[in-house]
## 1
Amino acid sequence: MELTNENVLGKIIEQFGEENITDAVNPDGIMTFQTNRQTIHELIKYLRDDKELQISFLTTMCGIHYPEQKDKELCMMYQLHSLRHNYRLRIKVYFPISDPVMPTMTDLYATANWMEREAYDFFGIVFAGHPNLIRILNVEDMEYHPMLKQYPLEDQTREDKVNTFFGR
Amino acid sequence: MATETKKVELDGLDQFRENLDLKLQDKHNENLTTLNLGPTHPATHGIFQNILQMNGEVIVDAVPTIGYIHRAFEKIAERRPFYQITPLTDRMNYCSSPINNMGYHMSVEKLLGIEIPKRAQYIRVIMMELARISDHLICNSILGVDSGAFTGFLYVMQERENIYDIYEEVCGARLTTNMGRIGGMERDLSPKALYLIGEFLKRFPKVWAEFEKMLTRNRIFIDRTTDVGAISAERALSYGFTGPNLRATGVDYDVRVMNPYSSYDDFEFEIPVGSKGDTYDRFLVRNAEVWESLKIIEQAYKNLPEGSYHADAPHYYLPPKQEVYRNMEALIYHFKIVMGEIDAPVGEVYHSVEGGNGELGFYIISDGGRTPYRLHFRRPCFIYYQAYTEMIKGGQLADAILTLSSLNVIAGELDA
C-alpha cells in the first residue's frame, strides 16, 4: 500500500476518532496533526504495530514553548518515519505549563529515553513512567528549565553590553 | 589559624548519586569494583564519562554521563539571525563540519523556498563527500590506534590534511569551516581548489587501499573486533540508529538515497551494509563508504555543470563586495542581511542530510521573525550513544574502548 497523507490520516481518524486527531496541516511535505495526551501513547503504538503503516522509527522529538497560548503553553513534537514506505509524520501535543505531564514512550522506543530526558531538562516536561527522569545535558543542581522563553539568552542585568543602536 | 571546613549541601548531586546507586546493580557485592572511566581519558577521544561496575575485567553495568561540553546551541540559535547560526552547526560534528553547514543551509533554503543552481549543488556534494571521507578516516584509523596499530593513523592523517587544504582553499578555514552560504556557495571553486581535488582523487585511492590492506584481513585486528559491541538490527532501530552504525547491522537506510537532496540522485553509488552489527562490521561499512564517496566525488568533479554557484536570492544571499561599493540596491541588501534585519517567512521545516554518523536533521519553526522561533537539531550521536551501555555490558573494558571508537561518538555533536 502506498502511504499518502490522505489515507494515513483517514486510517488514524478511523481508529481514534475525529475529536482526538485535529488540525492536520502539511507545512513542508510532512503531514502534521495534533492529538491529546490521552491518545498519544496508543497512537504511536498503533502506528508502530500496524502491519500496513509500519511507521516504526522514532526520528526525533522535542519540546516547544509558546508562552502566549493560554493553556497550550507547552508542545511536544514527535516525528516518526516509516522506513518501509519512506513516509514521515509529525505529531504535536499541546498542554498547559501548569500541568506539564506527558506519557512516556520509553516502553515503545528505547531511543525515547534520552530524548525525553532532554525535553525534561530544557522544558520541564515530566514524563510519567520514565525509568530515570533526571537532567541530561545541564548540571544536576540547576533550578530552572533553560529553553523556556522567559529566560533570555543573555543576563539582562548586565550594563556593559548595552547596544543602543541595534537593540541587542 | 585553623581552617574550617564547610559542608556543602548539593541536593541535586545527592539525587544524582541516588539514581546512580539505583542503576548500578549489586552495589554491596564485594566482588564488584566501581571504575570511573573518563571524563578526560586519553582512550575515549573526547569528553565522555562512564561509571562502570566491573566484575574482574567484565563490565556488569555502566552509567554514562554526558553534557560536559554542552554549549546550548538551540538556545543561542533563538537569538541569532539565520545566517549567524551556521558557525554553531560546524561545532557539532567537527570531524565533518561542511555536512553540518550545508545541511543547515539546505534546511533554511527549504524554509525560504529557494531553488539552488546545479553547479552549487554539485560543489556541495563534492565538499560533503570529502567531509564524509575525513570523518570515516578519523574513525577507522583511531579504531586501529585503540587496537594497537598506530601506523595507519599517522599515514592517513596526511590525507586528512590534504582534505583540510581543500576546505581552506574553498572557504578559508580548516576545521570549523562555516562553508557556503544560505543560497549556495560563498565563492566558486577556484582553479587551485579544482587542482587540489583532482590531485586528491588521484592519490587517495592508493593510500586508502594500503590502509585497508593493513587492517581488513589482519588476523589480530579481526580477532580483536569481531563480535565486540554487537547490536541487532531490531535493537538498533529501536535505539534510533542511523548512518554507518545502522547499516553495519544490515539495514540499508541512507538519507542520500531515500530522500535525495542536493542532486544526490544524479550519482551512481551503492549503500554498503554489514550483517552482524559488531565493531568489525562497522569498520568494513565505513571503509566501503569511503570508496563510494570517492566515486561520488569523481562523478561530480567530472560532470561539474556550468552556471552560477549561488541562487538568485538577493534578500538572503550577500551581494558581491564590489557591487556594495557602487550600487545602492546592493548596499541596502548588504546592510540588511549583515544586520540580520531580513525576516524569514512563517513556517515549519524538517530537513535531514546523511551526516558522518547518520541522519542529521534540522527542525526549524519560524514565526516570521529574523531568528528561528525554535531550532532543534536531530543529532545522531546523541541518539545512538544511549545504546552504549547495552552494547558494552558483558564485554571487557578494552572492548568498551573499541566500541566507543567504532561508534564514532563525537562529543560536540553529542552535547551540542
Note: Chain A has a mean pLDDT of 88.
## 2
Amino acid sequence: MADPVKVVSKRFGIPDSHTLDVYLQHDGYVALEKAVKSMQPAEVIDEVKKSALRGRGGAGFPTGMKWGFVPKDSPKPKYIVCNADESEPGTFKDRAVMEFDPHSLIEGCLIAAYALGSHTCYIYIRGEYGWVQDIMDVAIREAYAKGYCGKNILGTDFSCDVYTHPGAGAYICGEETALLNSLEGKRGHPRIKPPFPAVEGLYGCPTVVNNVETLATVPWIIQHGGDTFRQLGTEKSGGTRLVSVCGHVNKPGVYEIPLGYPMKDLLEKECGGIRNGNKLKAVIPGGSSVPIITAEEAYRVKLDFESIGEVGSMLGSGGVIVMDETADVFESTFRLVHFYKHESCGWCTPCRDGGDWMEQIFDRISIGGGRSEDLDLITSLGRNIEGKSHCALGDALVWPITSAMKKFPEDFQRALDRGKKLLREPAAV
Amino acid sequence: MSTDTTSQTCTITVDGVPVVVPAGALLIEALKMQGIDIPNFCYYQNLPAQASCRMCLVRIEKMPRLQPSCTTIVKDGMAVEVNTPEITDMRRGMLEFMLADHPLDCPVCDRGGECELQDNVFKFGHVDARFTEDKHPIPDVDISPFIYNDAQRCVFCYRCVRVCDVWMDVGALAKLNRGSHETIGTFDGWLDCEHCGNCVDVCPTGTLMHTSYKYGPRPWNLDETETTCSYCADGCRVRLGSRGNVVHRSVARQGTGINEEYLCVKGRYGFDYINSGERVTQPLIRKHGELRPATWDDALEHVAKRLGDIAKAKGADAVAVLGSTRITNEANVAIAIVADALDTTQLSYKPDFDLATFMKSVAGRLATKADIASADTIFVIGGDPKEDQPLTAHQLLQPVLKGRSALYVASSRLARIRKRASQFVHLRPGGEAVLLLGLAGGSSDVSAKSAGCAPSDVEALRKALEASRRLVVMVGSECHGAALEAAAALGSLLGDGERHVTYRPLVEDNNSVGAYDTLGQGVAYSEVIGALGDLITASTPSEPT
Amino acid sequence: MLTPEREKKIDELLTRYPSSRSALLPALWVAQEQYGWISLELQRYLAIRLGITPEQVREVVTFYSMYNDRPVGKYHLQVCCTTPCMLMGSDDVIGYLEKKLDIGRGQTTGDGLFTVSQVECLGSCGTAPMLQVNREKYDENLTTEKVDALLDRLRTQAAAEGSNG
C-alpha cells in the first residue's frame, strides 16, 4: 500500500502547527470559506453524508445521518457541542488534534454550525486537559481576531461563537447526554433517550454532539469532497482515522490510517513491533470498553468497523492497547473493572451495584481468595448487567471481562489458583 | 399529539394476550390497569421519569435491549413480554444487586412490614445469597430533628430528591458522591427545609425515616385510624398510627383525601400533644384552691348549678357562651343549644378572620381547587399560603412551577411563597386596602405612598392582573374591613375586559368557616369580651363557696 | 471570597451560557485555583454568585473526581494507574512516590507539600507511566530518576514562592 493520505494529522509535526499563521499556510479555513460563501447548508450536510464519515468517539454513528436528524424548522436555538472529554483508556488522539491542530477543530465546529443553523458551539474538554484547553482558548482568540469566529464570519451574515468548557474528572461525561447535563452545570448522569439530543439536547434545544476528530475531519471533506474522503477507506467505513497505540510496542503514539488498514502493519510498521522483541499476547483494539482479541486474531484483522466485528470486537475509539507475553490478562482486566467501578455514575442499579460487586470479586481473587465458582458468578453477574444498564457503561464493564475470560482462560485459572500457593486453607471471607 | 388521545384506546399484546389500553399511556400504568403490577422503585406517579432502578424492564418486540416500562409510551400493536424467564431472571438480578450492599437489618428496621424492597424480594427475589464480599457500612445519622438517614439501606430511587425538588419546590435533599459511594444527603449534613416529611413517605426502603417513629411499634401492630388533620383549613386526610393509648405516627401514604400523599410539618409531626401527660383527660373541680378529679355527673351538675345561680343572681345575659374556630360544626351547634337553654343572648366565638365582611363582599364567588388549578394568574394579598394553608400553597405552586400560571404576592410579611412569585410587593403593615384601591384604578402614586411601596410596583402589578383572564385572589388574614371589601371588588374594578375571578380566604384555623356558619349570627366577640372584661382580667379562679 | 481577577473571570463565564448554572463547572475551577480545594463556605458563595442552590453546587462538587472537597497538598500528584499505564509500570511509580514521601494514597505529607493519589486514565497512554501535578501539563514517560527530579523541582519552586512571601 502506498503512503496513506493524511487528513486529520497532516499538520502534525509542522513547527508551531497550533498557530493560526501556520494553519493558514496549510489550507487553513479554506473549507470554511468555501462552505459559507459558496454552499447551502443542505449541501454541506450532503457532502458529509457522501463521505460516509462515522463518529470517531466510539459508537461509530454516521455523522451525516446525525446531522440530518436536527429538525430544520425548529424555532429554538441549535447548538453544536464538541465532545472533547476523551477518557476511554487507551485513547489519546483527540488530545493530539487539540494540541497540534486546534484550528482544524474550530473550523470543523464552524462548518457544522453553518450546516445546521447554529450560532453557538461549546467544546467540552475533560478537566485534566487544562493546558489543552488553554491551547484551544488561544486558538479561538486568534480566530476571533481574524474574523473566522464571532459576528459576520468572513464578511457573510453567518455568525457563530465558539467556547471551551472544562469537565472535572468523570469518564461518564463522554456519553453525549451525560455531557450535556454536565455542560448545564449538573451531575453527569446520562439522560433518558428518546428524546435524542438532535431533537432535545442542550437546554432542551436541538443539539449535535460530535467527537473532536470527527469535527476536525469535516474541513478536509468540504475542501476535497465527500467522495474523495470515502474512497480513502472502505465502502462502509469511509476515509482515514486516527488510532492511538499504547502498551508494549516500540513506538506508541497517534497514527492516521485508512480504514481497512491491517492491524499487523500498524503494529509492525508504524509502531516498530513489540518491545524487546517479545511475542504479542493480546490486543484491545478500540479503547478499553471493547472485547479483547488474541494475538492470532490481531494479526489477521483489518482496522475497519466490519472486519473487527468479525472477531467479536469493535473499532470503538481507536485506542489500541497492546500486551506482550509478559502481561497478565487477569490483572489487566481487574484494573479495567476497577476503572469502570470508579467511573460508574451511580444512576442505575446494575452498573452501580454490579460494578462494585464485580470489583470486589476480582480483588478477592487477586489476593489469593479465589474460589472455583467465581468464574460462573462473574459470568452470571455480567449477564445481569449487560443490556440492562441505563447507558452503555454497563456493557463496557462486562465486555472486557467476558471476552478476557473466554480468550485467556489460563490467566484467570492461574489467578484462581493463587490462593492455593499462598495459603493452606481457603482465604477468609 | 392532541390532548384527547387519553380518551382513545389502542391494543397491545402482553405475553401474547391482546389487551386494550388508553392510547398515549405509560406502559407501566397501562399494565397496572390490566391488573399486572410491574415491580419498580424509582417510578412514582407525578414525578419526573428516572428509569434508574431497572426493576420495571420488559421485553418489547423489535427492541434490542430490555426497555423500562416507566418511560415507554404504549403504541398500537406493541408486543410486550412481562412474565418470561428472561424477565424473572432480570428482576432477581436487580434485587440481588440492591441487596448486595444492603445491611439486611429488616428485624430492626422501622420500615419492615411496609418496605417495597422487602415486598419485592419476597415476590421476585433470590433465595441463595451469592454476595459474600464485604459490605460498606454507613452509620445512620439525624439530618433534622424529625428525620434520620440510614444511607446503607438506600436503593437510589431518588424519589425523595424529586419530591423535595418537584412537589415541595424546596430542593433540600441532594445526591452526593458518585457510583457505589453515592448517598442521599444534604448540603452540610442538616436539612434546610420545611420538614414536611414527604421524602420519608415516598421512600421505598428504610433509608429516610421519622425520628419520632424510630424503634416504635411495627407497622402491623399499629391501629391505623383515618382522620382529618385539625391544624388548618386545608383539612388533610391523615392516618394516625397508634398502639394502646399512644399515637406513634401520622402518615398520608396511600391516602385518598384531597391531599393525596401530601402532608405539611404540622400534620406530619404535630401529634405529640395527643400523648402529652399534661392533657386534661377527666373533669376536675377546684376545692380549697386545688383541682381534684371528679366524675362527669358531679362535674356537669356542678356547672349547671353554678350557671343557674349566676343567671338567677345577675340575669341570663350574665352568662356568655363561646364556640371556637377549632372545633367541629356539631360541637358549635351543641354550644348554641346550651346558650339557648341558658336563655342567654351572649353567644359568640373568637374569629381568626373577618369572614363576615369577606363572605358578604365576595357573594359566593369562592375559589375551588379546580379554579386554582386552572387559573392563569394567582394573586395573594396580605397572607402567606405556605404558613396559613400549606396544602393550598402546594396545589397553587404546581401550575406555577410548570409555567401554566403566574403568581403575584403583596404582603407586609416576607411571605415564603414569594420565592416563585413573578412579582412580590412588600407592603407597610395595614397597606393592603390602599394598594387594592390603587390596583382597582386609583392613583398609583397615592396608593404606593400609603402602602409603602413604589408607584412602579403598583403599576406593574395592575398591568399583570389586568392581563389575567382566570384570576384567583387569595386574601390573607392581614386584610380587614376595607381591605376585604376592596379585594372583593377587584374583579369588577380591574380594567381591560372581562375575566373569571374567584376568591379564597386564607383563614388560619381549621374550622373558621364552620364557626362562622354556625355561630356567625351571634353577638360580636368584642362585645362579649367587653361585657365580661372584669371577669377575664380577674386573677383568682372562680371557686364554689 | 475570590480575587478581583477571578471575580471578573466568573463574570465573563456567565456571559457564555443562556443559563447561569452552566457556569458552575468552570467557576468551581476558578475557585479551586485560588484555594486548592472547595470548602462548604466557598460552595455556598458560588451558589449565591450563580443564583442556584447550595445543594446544586454540592451535588456537582462531590460527583466530579477532580474537585477537592477537602484540603490537599500544595502539589497534588495524581498518578494514572489504569490498564495502559499499569502495563508500563505505573504501580512502580506510585509505589516509589509513596515510599519516598512516606505517605499512602490519598494522604498528604506533613509539610503540606504533596498529596499522592491514584487516578483513572488521564489520556496519556502512549507516554505511560505518567502523572499530573494539580492541573498542570502532564509529566510523562516517568522513571524513578524523573520522579526524583520532579520532586526536587517542586520543592525548589515551593521554597522560592515561600521566600517571596
Note: Chain C has seven helices and three strands.
